[in-house]
Amino acid sequence: MPIITISRGTYSGGKDLAECVASRLDIPCVSREIIVDAAKQFGVSEEELAEAMGRPPSFFERFSHQRDMYLAFIRTALLQHAARGSFVYHGHAGHLLLSEIPNVFRVRVVAPMQYRVTAAMERLGVDQRAAVQHIEQVDGQREKWTRFLYGVEWREPSLYDMILNLEHLDIGEVCDVLCGIARLQRFEWTDESRAVVVDEALAALITAELTRDERTRGSELRVTARGGAVTIRGKTRHAASESIEAVARGVPGVTGVTVEVADRSELPG
After folding, report:
1. SS3 category, 90
2. What pLDDT shows up at residue 151?
């Protein structure tokens, strides 16, 4: 079975669908809250990380290092879940954070505005006008967040393998469709696909450590891993170049490190 990512607008039914699919396939349902909680391994509180990830791009434009660090934490936590096997994820840009994983099935759920407004009114206890304002505000923030961080449009159809509309189908029917696809042979785990996930998880963890270490933060680095052998390329300040290998070798699972970096003494601290 694949790792299934479900993208949705607020109150579009994505959370309910994710829980239904996970229950029927008997695999974990991983939400943004679980990812945030897992990111505590890096010493960031759930509240701080959740608040930072929900702020508009102007905040990240002023604190780009913090943006990169928090994204590295979340991607690492998500890939660590992937290394344990299949799950359903609904949360921040899972289809983008897991873009290097071979057996990810990327789903987007859409629903008519009245469907969403009714759901928001029921869950938030507000009137129709307030529900519409809430939906537009949250969707607008997600759209800006995705555009700023990844340079893509959140609603772009080519980012997804399937788009499902709940206008004429209910959650149960859509759940049936996704479960049927998830059981296709092409999504079965292989030794090769598991190795890719393990390598990506290790590279993500090293990236997170390099991002938060005072000696190497601010560098522009690309980390790849293959069977424990790690290669780090990019640009960094001269003073940081000697520390890159030390940070990488301190990560469990690393068997060797190759560093190929250019000097960028003008990089900010």
Report:
1. strand
2. 75
Tally of CB atoms within 10 A around 153:
12
Q: Which tokens in the block code for residue 162?
A: 């399937």
Q: pLDDT tens across 144-202, in order? A: 777 776 777 778 888 899 999 988 889 999 999 999 999 999 889 999 999 999 999 99
Q: What is the mean pLDDT of the chain?
A: 85
CA distances from 74 to 69, 96, 155 (A): 9, 12, 22
d(CA 132, CA 139): 11
pTM: 0.82
Q: Which amino acid, 177?
A: V
Integer Cα distance of 39 and 256 in angstroms: 26
Cα torsion angle, 6, 58, 77, 65, sign: positive
Transcribe 129-171 into DSSP letters: HHHHHHHHHHHHHHHHHHHHHHSS-TT-GGG-SEEEETTSS-H
Domain spans of the chain?
3-187, 213-263
Which secondary-structure segment (H or E) carries 50?
Answer: helix 46-54
Cβ(14)–Cβ(90) below 8 Å: yes
- Give the model confidence (pLDDT) of 28-84 as tens digits: 998 876 667 667 778 777 777 766 666 655 555 555 667 778 788 888 988 988 888
* Helix (H) or strand (E) segment spanning residue 190: none
Q: Contact 70/88 with Cβ under 8 angstroms?
A: no
Separation CA 235–CA 149 (nearest Å): 20
Count of other CB atoms within 10 angstroms of residue 234: 16
**What is d(CA 89, CA 38) in angstroms, rounded to the nearest whole number?**
14
- The answer regarding whether domain 3-187 maps to CATH 3.30.360.10 reads no
- Tell me how far the alpha carbon of residue 187 is from its chain's centroid: 20
Amino acid at 145: W
